[in-house]
Amino acid sequence: MEDILKEIKKLRLDFLSEEWVESIYQSEFLEYGEIPNDYEISIEYDDIKSIFLHIMSAIDVWLNNNLENGEDKSWTQLSPLIKHQNLLALLGYFIDFGGKNILTREHRNNAILASRLYYKLLCIPGYKAYHIYHSQLFTQSLVCLNYPKAMCDNEDNYFNTKELTREVNSLIKELGHFVNNLREIIPNLHLSPSDMNFEDILSNLVDITGGAIVNKLNIDKVELANLSGIIYEMIDIIICQSKDDPNSTAIQLVFKCLLPKFIAASTDSRNANNVVKASYVTYSGILLTKYGKDALPGYVVLLQHLCYTLDGLERAEVRLARVSLVVGLMSLLPRKSYRSFVKWLLKLSTTAKVSHRQVALEILAKLLNNDPDLSNPVQSSNNGSTCPINESNNTETNQECNQNTREGQEPTPESENTAERQPGTSTNSVNTESESEDVPPDNEETEDEIAGLLRQRAHTVAHGELLRAVYERVHDASGSLRMRALSLLADCLLSDHPPMKKAIEELQGAGAGAGAVSRLAGAGARCVCDERAVVRKAAAGLLQRLIANALRDGRAPLDSDYALLVGLCRDASIVVRSAALSALGELAACAASRPSVAATVPPVTLSKSPDTTSECPGTPTKCPATPTNGPVTRTRDPATPSGPQDAASDPPSVSRVALDAFLAGPMHRLSDPETKIQEQVVSFIQQLLIDRLRKYDSLVSEDSLPWEFLSGITRHNMKRHLQKACGLLVKSSNCINHRLVDIVSTHLGALSDERDLLCLVLLTSVARHVDYSDVGFLLDYYYHLTEKPERDARLLPLVLELLSTWARCVAGDARAALRDHLVTRLAAAPDDGSRIASASLAAQLDPDNLHWATELMQISERRALASSDVREWLRAADVSLVAPAPPSPQLLRLFLAALARPPPEWGAEERGVCAAGAGRLCVRSRDAAAALAPPLAALLRDGAAPLCARLNSLLALTDICTRYSCIVEPLLDAVCGCVARGAAAPLRRAGARALTRLLLAGYLRLRTPLYYRYCALLADEDHDVREPAEYYVSCCLTVDAIYHHFVDCVLHYNNEETESISFDARQLIYDVMLQRLSLVQKLNVQCRLAREVLEHAAALCDEQDELPAALHAALLDTITLLCGPRMKLPKKPEKAGDADLDDLQERVTTNIVSHKMKRTVAEVLVPAVLRLYAHMRPRGGQLAAYLVRIATDLLNDYRHEIEELIENDEELVERVRQFQETIGLEASFGNARNLVTASAPPEPDTPRARRRPAPRARPHSPRKRALRV
């Protein structure tokens, strides 16, 4: 003992002031002031390290020697001889100072030695009686175990990695002695969960076992493993007060200490944290294996907190790491606990916080890969609970049934809108599990046995319940969750796992495969109209998988599924359009590879958007929009079917339906403003058409997909789209070349006229991009076709067009012979639909010799003047397009007179031919166009005129507009009259297409009043009239134009002088327009409607008693718009999104618009509503009821901003309450208590160790009381 006193005397404890020591004790070792200067000077030249080591050696000698002499070796002997309070305060100072200066070796080692000396002091008996043990000081001493990690985190402060490695290895050796001294005192401390700082003690012990420094440096792994082994042993000693009685609360606190380690490792994506997670996961599994049921509740609570803690969950990578961690830890659970935890996850997926639902959804998605639960469910007749039957273990079955019965009597979880579930609630169910649960025994295991137990267990899940939980998230309030749920359902449809297929069949519902709409199809149909682009994209993927599954199973997909994907091809978002295009392209290829199945439903009614390009002939020899025959409305395009197709009478095959969907959707995106979309469509066209073509061989079965594709092109009159696709293919690839022409030429004339038509359609599309010199096959086919008595009328114009493109390749005698043949047919043959093409080709073959054209024109003019045969008029007009001499003025006067006063003997056919011939002359001369345009417009207005004549007049005016738009602009009222409701259906359809083509090509500008008339087509009942307008307004019309004319449209459509439109039709028009507007523009529209309609109506009420009928109707439209979903306050985006740039931009924009919209409502809209209601209140009626409705909606959305404004009108408040009660809502207006905070869910309960309260801070040490004697 003398040695101890001698060494302690070297510390000069007498130089420590009593005030300094007392302040440390009063702060409970939490605050350390500066060490006194006198003491610092006194030990300036002393080696503190050697003093500490000598004191420890002296204590060891004193405690271990002379055990037989009966000397009292306790603090009873030492306490009167040393100032142990000064000693403890000094040790605490060194420990605290070393923890604050970890990077300095001297201070760091002094802290470790001070801690070791403190442990030696605790080895002396009587340490508790003399208050040597202090929980806070002991906890601070354990912070030394965190020094290696702290040094690695500050590696930038070291010169190089080798220096840091050397320092860390030396520190680990020092900590080896540290943990050995600590190991000696742990059994005698008898630590329990009720002790103060017990949790901090466990946390400091657990921290170094994570192994975060293993991968970063060349650390001595053997020493570190030995260090961790001793710490694990100490934790076991703390947990087990006796060998057979582990403390479950202590185990729970160990798991609680592991929780922040897991959270931190999951939040940081550095590779070192993978080692940390693996280490902690292994240790958690060892605890569960070693302590069995005592560790199970804490393990389950750990899993619940990992799902429930929100730190970092707003980042997608953190969520994925957390989900992987939870799924891995779940695999170690016993069977019943696993089922209970899955049930808890199902409840968590319906909680109020988005991050919790996201984590639960991702975990449930991972669990769908498990094996199915093979137990047969038996419904209980008493309470409907399900009891799995297991013949091999009846006892366990009964216990499970009893447990399920008890659970069935508990209240069912509330819906998603209620408060969050408390994660700790499932702990009780875990604790009440039967004793037969598959939990590892409590006895100790060898390492091999533990390694076997740590393997993942083959757990089973009820796929139906999990899939239903995923399906419920499709209706979630969060767009990210809706998107993720749709993606998961689409992935499940691809699964070949039998339990997954069965679960999907159960979810789809009975009769889903018999033509009825399944649940998944209904979910996809709802989500394609979602406000979030990512949700619409996911819905497109789900619809694609549904159709692909139907094709795989040999069923015909529903036409509505294709129609939804076609509609998404026009979406405003590029990612949605891209997804829809990809889906339709892949489905078209997939349908062609399946066996031919006739569709059991009518063919899909697909929209045919107008051509996005309008061909304007460069020379007067081309007039594609002008008819040639009398009674027809227009020259039939060579790709237009002349009669009913054979396929039309038969049920359409699945491949035809898929190709029709592709032609109706992606094919029209060849004019998309995004180059990426164009390239995507062109790529699919190359895959479906160009790459699949092979040379004709009657002995080899050919691929039918390219010919079906070309058949769809001809069926839908989409030759121009194919031409544009070929032009884009020339730029992007080398597939349009001579080899393609060689392949297609082998099919020409080999099978039938139908195949020849398809070949010619493709050849005319690629001809302008390929310089093909060997056109002998085409000349032979032309001569053969002209000699054929019965042929398809569409073939000859296509052949002539192809010869015109390759005319430069026809030389010598073949060129002269072809020209002579054409001229001879023009002079002798009647009109066969190819007169203009023949004349143009003949003129192109010999442009220097066109006397034949002049002669033929003059001969026809003389015949026309000599007789009233209108066919000769038309022949003269056709040939005049290529004749060098102008047509005779008498011919023009003939057409003018006939248009003004048609001969009485003329029928509908003659009048149609007359209008067509007048159109030819308009193309030939500007003067003729200026003279003929007014009578053509008058004919178009004449409702008693034959339909064919009016149609040809419309097409003639269209041709004039493509050349001389200034001539047609004054006559636009006649063109607009074609789309009036009273006009004939064919004329209305042709008028809608003609207007759309002119607008697309830029020959017309959509100004008022044309704007109003054209937008009215959006609500037309005829699909063929409505569809071109929808295409132009939704895809081509600028958003600024819609925004500037929106309020004007509301006023115009309610004007009594205009054509009446029903209320529902007007709302449909407004809805299409609002879909294009941005949030900011919708806000401005709301302001304009409030000022220009509501305030204007209120001002009129001040001046007169009755409102005009037009303004009354406009008010109804305005109030309906302001109450509608398109004009509602934008939903605040969830903070727990993927945190990408688009998400952040949307969040900022929405916040700004929400703030502005609230100000607008409070400053503009509500005063206008109150003012107008004050005038309408005495009269009542529909308008007053609508004002009450808008007041109710405004109150629900903007309660905080406008409640004080509306409360001043007591009668309006009463009407709002009555309205809410009438529609079944609880009256929510008035002085209501805010229960938002009260309804917030409590945090999950976890055991917490008792902490000593922090002392009150004092500005200075308390004054000593004087001792009075």
UniProtKB/TrEMBL annotation:
Domain of life of the organism encoding this protein: Eukaryota
Q: Which organism is it from?
A: Euphydryas editha
Q: Which residues form a coiled coil?
A: 1188-1222
Low complexity composition bias: which ranges?
A: 390-405
Q: Which GO terms describe its biological process?
A: meiotic chromosome condensation; mitotic chromosome condensation
Taxonomic lineage per UniProt?
Answer: Eukaryota, Metazoa, Ecdysozoa, Arthropoda, Hexapoda
Locate the compositionally biased regions of type Polar residues.
372-389, 606-616
PANTHER family associated with the record: CONDENSIN, CONDENSIN-2 COMPLEX SUBUNIT D3
**Residue ranges with Basic residues bias:** 1249-1269
Q: Would you tell me the protein name for this molecule? A: Condensin-2 complex subunit D3
What are the start and end residues of every segment in region (Disordered)?
371-448, 602-653, 1235-1269
Which residue ranges does UniProt annotate as crossing the membrane? none
Compositional bias ranges of the Acidic residues kind: 434-448
Cellular compartments per GO CC: condensed chromosome, centromeric region; condensin complex
- Entry keywords, A to Z: Coiled coil, DNA condensation
Q: Enumerate the GO terms in the molecular function aspect.
A: histone binding
